[in-house]
Amino acid sequence: MDKQTEFVLRTIEERDIRFVRLWFTDVLGTLKSVAVAPAELEGAFAEGLGFDGSAIEGFARVYESDMLAKPDPATFAVLPWRAESPGVARMFCDILMPDGSPSYADPRYVLKRALSRAADMGFTFYTHPEVEFYLLKNHPSEGAPEPIDNYGYFDNSPQSVGYDFRRQAITMLEAMGISVEFSHHEGGPGQQEIDLRYADALTTADNLMTFRTVVKEVALEQGVYATFMPKPFRDAPGSGMHTHVSLFEGDRNAFYEPGAPFQLSQVARSFIGGVLRHAPEITAVTNQWVNSYKRLAGGAEAPAMICWGHNNRSALVRVPMYKPAKGNSTRVEFRSLDSACNPYLAFAVILAAGLKGIEDGYDLPPGAEDDVWSLTPAERHAMGMEPLPGSLNQAIQAMERSELVAETLGEHVFDFFLRNKQAEWEEYRRQVNAWEIDRYLPTL
Amino acid sequence: MSEQRPSSVAGSLARRGFADPGEAARLLAEMGLPEPEAFADALTAAADPDQALRALHRLDSAGADIRAVASDEEWFAALVATVGMSDALADHLVRHPVSVDRLRGVPVRAPSATERRARLLAAVGADADAPAPTASVASSAADALRVAYRDELLTTVVRDLVHGARVDDIAEELADLADAALEAGLAIARAELPPDAAPCRLSVIAMGKCGGRELNYVSDVDVIFVAEPVEGGDEEAALRTAQRLAAGVMRVCGEPTSEGSLWQVDAALRPEGKQGALVRTLASHVGYYERWAKTWEFQALLKARPAAGDRALGEAYVDAVLPFVWSAADGADFVSDVQRMRQRVEDHIPPREADRQLKLGRGGLRDVEFSVQLLQLVHGRSDVMLRSPSTLVALEALATWGYVGREDGATLGAAYRFLRSFEHRIQLHELRRSHIVPEDEVALRRIGRSLGFRTDPVAELTEEWRRHAREVRRIHEKLFYRPLLQAVARLDPGDARLTPEAAGERLAALGYADPVGALRHLEALTSGVSRRAAIQRTLLPVLLGWFADGPNPDAALLGFRRMSDDLGSTPWYLRLLRDESLAAERMATILSSSGFATDLLLRSPDAVALLADDRELMPRSLDALIAEARAAVARHEDPDSAVSALRALRRRELFRIAACDVLGLIDDSTIMRGLTDVTEATLVGTLEVAERAVAAARPDGQLPTRMALVAMGRFGGRELGYSSDADLVFVHDPLPGADEQEASDAAFAIANDIRRLLMAPSPDPALEIDADLRPEGRQGPLVRSLESYRAYYDRWSAPWEAQALLRARPFAGDQGLRDAFARMIDPLRWPEGGISEADTREMRRLKARMESERLPRGADPSMHLKQGRGGLADVEWVAQLLQLRHAAEVPGLRTTATLEALDVAVDAGLLDASDAATLRASWLLATRVRNAIMLASGRASDSVPTSGPALVAVAHLLGYRPPADMLEEYRRTTRRARGVVERVFYG
Q1: pTM for the full predicted model
Q2: pLDDT score recorded for residue B4
């Protein structure tokens, strides 16, 4: 038994934990949870806990439904929002086949495979997400969404629900060992942003799953409703998840090269080149909902064109202002991601696109220093800027042809994901929405 | 004169075996010895005379009285042997010339552990009789310890090199010496404690090789520290003191000083490893082992032994933890742990110097140590006699009590001793930890001579090493499998042997799912005094290992038993087994991985003889098969017995192909071709039998019609798999002047006879005839005349019928009729100008409809081999569409073979080369998986197995590890193919 496992078993005794929630994530990024009593945990560590995978989105078909959830002791944390004692704790699980080999359907394994490819090339992948979300006064069942306030970007909002909310959410996150770097009121009414400290991508993805749960829990406690829907209001900005990424070789930031243009090493330049070139095909994963594309169409902070800029907030990839003497903080910001993605899959495809750029020695296209939104379509075309897919449908079509995405997700997840998204699009196409009624009914 | 004398000395030195006589002569001269010749004579006993002389020269310069030593023959021999082997000890003597005295009158018996302890304690000024001896030599105690340790080592080396002590005894001595050094180190650590340190009881427990008293000259000394407060003392404060003492011992022994270091003290085997507390109380240790420890940690405890410090506490520790060792085998993970450990022994990735490794790698020391410990864990729970911490003692006990064969135990013991001696001599030279056989000739020569190989030291040493390594390499057979037979074969009643319970334990640990059944088979196979039983007793240990490598060892053992019951005393079978030949290994592989081939083999076990010879095993050519079929038909008058002979021929040929396939001897196209050929030959023969029978039943003894068989589908394409039916169309043509009805009746009788004869129950597998591809399918008549076909096609032919004809290949019966049939269908399947747009559209629609309708209910479309996405049908329809459109203009497309059509289409510029490669890969993979399903289980299925033993067995045959990789590759390959189909076929 390894150290971590022992630590977990011991802590459970010492802290009087009565239930342990085993968490895993389905292919669409929804958190799944099975509660076990501590007595069953040792068995789960050794052999995994059997469950019926056919009930989980994208895991298995009915006749191959036996799967095992094997907790990862390194992810053990006591849940702070349950009453103190007896306590409840959680761990993330790896999903295994009955023979004990990892399941290709497990998003966590998808990311682990991508990370191990990076490791083969000598890299560790770090991510630092800035998560945006809305706080609403009312529950979705109670009619049209109403934001909790009318404050704006960086507004100091003392005594407000949002302020208390952020304070408590951050306390809980820290209690679970998730470091928060920054938090503030975002641009939209009731919109919040909380930035997680940078960590390796697997930890960050686990943290994001925890984060979404914590935010929802705290909102409930405070009588409000939190949503990560990419674009809940037509006239207010959507909720993105700008993510800073970097590759390290050991302790050294592989993106940093002193004296190079923008201090960007060739590795960084090729990585960005890869992300840009493969952006269309990975978009269905980074922006997986019909609604995601409403955010991308909205302008402002959301990118819709495939280009990069130095300190350009309208580009898909931004290279933040370099801080002298902080070579290890060199990173690039990927801006199309939204808060409702499956972080395991999203990080995996971004990493794969970047690594492809490094492997094949892509170079960086010229940067875009203008506000992309101020350019005419003809100008953009002339500058070689292609748009991101404009709808889920376009994104699916780009992904279908992508060997890169198939390779990265694995055939099982690739196939399931496409079928699921095609079905979502088909259903959406049949909708008649309020805009159509308002627009056409009076005149047609 | 003075010029000449050294050169004549040099000549005699060369004769005495000095490698560099000039240098030797110079050194001798410099030393100004009275009798240099006699002196040099004594040096020839050294492992390396040159090295010995150089060392003596240095000693002389350092002030040692070499002349005095040389005057005492025994003393001189000891010195020469020591410095002739070990440069490190020569350095020690040069630094401390007075230590040369230690080599004088070294007794053959080693001093007791107590004496050793007393001497090393004295060296650091500690009182050996004190309850907690404390060093009084202040600043240079660690140096004093090192000097005293090496002085002690000198006498051990003399016993090793001069007195010829056994390696076991030397290893014990080295462990005793290590204990004494730990004790002295502890005394030094005590002296360094601050005056106000709380009192504590500390015991140093030796683990690993030191614990087993089988230590090397230089290796890490594994220890665990256990501490208790003195009576009534404070536990926390006592542990703080103990912690300082433990850290002190490790530092004193391991840290290099001006006198070097002894060895590293490694405390990593403690609870929680390097992260755990260095020192724990007894209760804390026990608590850990009660709750957290793993199988390998229990395995390590096997060797726990109090080495230094508080004796009573150490003994209490060992008494408390030893029972845990024997409870390990009760743990839930034990079987999987053992399998992993066994895998580790068998599969460890050899490091770069693999072939020069004494310790790791196949046939190394670790192999022996690990295997012995594994057997101790498996059987030691129920048998206390096996519980020795020493590898050699345990091996002896295993042999004495029947867990290992007596002779095998002795051979392995000898090999282990040799390898250990070899290792010792390697380390002795520089007193450095190493398990690598040096490549340098001088070093090898030195080691060889020291081990008594004097004629051709390097070659003899290498040969001896290889010989022992060979013995060790078969260790699993000897240790694990052979004793299983002794458990059941009641032959030598006097000898101890494995009990059935112990044998069951061991079989389960080796992966046999039903150990009781397995033992029953073993008993049946090996009991008795027949020659067969005797030979099987020899072979089974090897077979059991081979079986355990496959996915289904239980089935393999059962299969072997049935084979053996059948072939019993056939001399060639026994010879095949006795020689443990390639054939036997092949048989084991087939039995444990292919239900299909096993079944064929069991229907007629004599086919096992084919396995002995590659030329015999290769599938036969079509011509040879047809000749053989015709001969069989000619031999047998009676239709049933004639067809029996044909079906036996087919069975043997199927076995050839399946065996070659399982063993990886032939490629995919050879397999498909072979299966097609044997089907053709069988049908050619059966047609002749049926014609003969029907003719004989007629009054005139003549047939009124001529008959031909047309292969369709995969059969037509020469692409048969193990599970394919033979798609056939029957055609006849009445002879001129014959009565139409009579001719038709005769043709029907022949067709029906063929089906009946080939599908009748028999010990040989049936050949399923599928005639559904005939016009009008099952509604149409089974046989039509050529004219009837012509009339039908003139009236009805739809594009899909022309499509089916693409793979029509007349192959048996009347040659003229075959040609006429071909001439009739050629314009249909290769239409001039290709098929129309409307027909193309119709074909696409039909395919689209079939995709949804043909798939069995609930089947996963991505996993269906035939109708699934990117599967066989997808690829074949692409080829066939290209053929229908272009075969008239591109003659190469007029083929019945799918892959050939694709290749030709590429050459003709009709298909992109990379698209063709994608389609080919998918078609071949689907074909391969379909064949493997049949091969593994003997049952046909068109769905890729996605879990359980079925997946494991198929993936094993196709070489995928882990099995899920096969699914991933299948999904990927077929997805790509589907992309091509959507572009190229659907347009």
Answers
A1: 0.68
A2: 46
